[in-house]
Amino acid sequence: MKKKIFVFLFNGYSDWEIAYLAPEIKKSDVYELVYFSKDGKPVQSMGGLCVLPEMSFPEININHVYMLILPGGTAWEIGENREIDLFIKTLFAEKRTIAAICGATIYLGQQGVLNNLKHTSIDLNYLKGVAPNYSGEKSYINSLAVTDENLITANGVAPIEFAREIFTKLKLMKDDEIEKWFQLFKNGLWSE
Fold it and tell me: How far is CA 115 from the centre of its chain?
């Protein structure tokens, strides 16, 4: 049975932030992408793409979650998507990998997930201003993407770096293949 990587979709999610990682994971013989929304109903991305998720949040068996991917979107910054709070805390406590980009890092900061692990976000001062429960300044790294233990975080301008961190964590390809992939999509360079 394939290991399941769940991707949370919601109205206004930043579709481009998961666009690079999805096709590569989809090709895998080891992993399965599972898209879900809070109620299983169609959602519309920030770019206007209407998507029908495969399942609703209540249908998820937490024991089947190998990794959770949280794309960005303004919903996080205005306090939406709170129905997954306990889910996030449980996954984090069980050392399951959580990968968050852009506004989703704000949400994790508010949940206390970022406090003791190295991480990045949109901007440290913005993170501190929008997430009053955040106290992880000492662990903040001003980088496009950071992995520490079971946490992957990325700046919203770094979907390619985000994908690379996820691929590396999953051992989706050999390291040199990941680097070739990165150079192709980041710089338009391909080497044999």
Answer: 17
Q: How far apart are CA 157 and CA 59, in angstroms?
A: 32
- Look up the pTM and report it: 0.97
Q: 102 an active-site residue? A: yes
Buried b (16+ CB within 10 A) or exposed e, 122-159: beeeebbebbeebebeebbeeebbbbeebbbbbbbebb
Cβ-based neighbour number of residue 75 at 10 Å: 19
Which domains can be identified in the chain, with CATH numbers? 3-187 (3.40.50.880)
Q: CA-CA distance, 32 to 99, in Å (whole number)?
A: 16
Find the catalytic residue in 102, 145, 146, 172: 102
Mean pLDDT of 164-178: 98
**CB-count exposure of residue 19 (10 Å: 0-12, 13-18, 19+):** middle
